Amino acid sequence: MTATTLVKQQAGPRAAGTARGRRGRRRARLIALLFVFPALLLLGALVVYPVLFSVGRSFFDASGSRFVGAGNYTEMFRDPATLKAIRNTAIWVVVAPALLTGLGLILAVLVEKVRWATAFKLLLFMPMAVSFLAAGIIFRLAYDEDPNKGVLNAAVVSVHDAFQGTSAYPTARGRAGLLTEDRDGSWRTTARAGQSVTLPMVGVLPGDLPKNASPAYPAAARRAAPGELRGVVYLDFTPGGGGRQGKVDPTESGLPGMTVQAVRDGRTAGSTTTAADGSFRFSGLSAGSYTVKLPQSNFAQPYQGVSWLGPALVTPAIIGAYLWIWTGFAMVLIGAGLSTLPRDALEAARMDGANEWQIFRRITVPLLAPVLTVVFVTLVINVMKVFDLVYIIAPGPVQEDATVLATQMWLVSFGGGNNQGLGSALGVLLLLLVIPAMVFNVRRFRSSQR
What we know:
By secondary structure, the protein is an alpha+beta fold. It has 2 domains: 230 residues, Orthogonal Bundle (MetI-like fold); 127 residues, Immunoglobulin-like (Sandwich). The longest helix is centred in the N-terminal third of the chain and has 55 residues. The protein is elongated and about 130 Å long.
């Protein structure tokens, strides 16, 4: 047997094995493709096709029949509502991810020192189980301006009234023709030292009177001594009808807690508060005429709290709702990174005399930098697409003040604008803004795997 024949005999089985290996690899690729094909089909139908269609649609007018080129993009940056949406989106991108990453870092570090860490994490993560629709409804009610409905304003009003107090007679007003109203809402009459004066009020429901209010008739019968100015503030209304206007009848009630001032020559000579029967008294006054005044503070409307959903605060209010939902997410992700830190480095720092703040600032944060970056960029991508909270929480009159690119795109396309060309251009703009953050995140993941 020659050498050539021997080589051919050895090469035959080797070539056959190579051919079988190629057929096996092709079969494996085909099987893999068959398994991946449904996912690729869905990806193409739900992502690729809509993106390509939106890009093409953005070059046509509202009806889709006339090609306008870059006209929609030009109009987009001339529209004040779109510029406001871009500004609000920028606020979201700058504020929300930074606050969430910071809160998540602080909570993740603190939770490690809590005995019931798992329960605490579960409690903070629970809002993630609530849909954005439900969360929007919850915070729409929480931010309600009526203190009887909105829990935040109920708390604000309670704290305000605890320190500032509130008027017991916001609807009261003086009897016309007997008392004179000033421009600031106060009521007045004139009297001389040594006289008694009656100040009849109306506009107060008998059921709204303070519990300690008593009849004013006995107080009205008292006479003032020399150098004294005496009087009574009373509700000039007789339950069941009857009585005389401007006269204190036996069944009419005094108005306790009213502030009364005696003013002379523009200066307050005395100030007092009415008793349970509405009576008041100034003593030690010099002879002459005085203005007896009920200041406007007696009739001030009750404090209604903060207009959380007004034009000035609607965006921060919605960001607050977003923080409530996503803080647990950031805490759990950062906590997972925190659990992988080398404990020997932390213990070595403590042995060298570093305090907890120095360890946190010089060791924990630098070592967690990759995790913090991933969390921050992920949240940036998320806030660029925020729609549900803005659309649900912001009332109709301030919808434009709270709008972001996602809501503006929907409003222009389907929410009354019916201009799918301009709406598609807004969608393309949003896609272009999201792509850099997505690319950055993908590169971070690849580098971490290496």
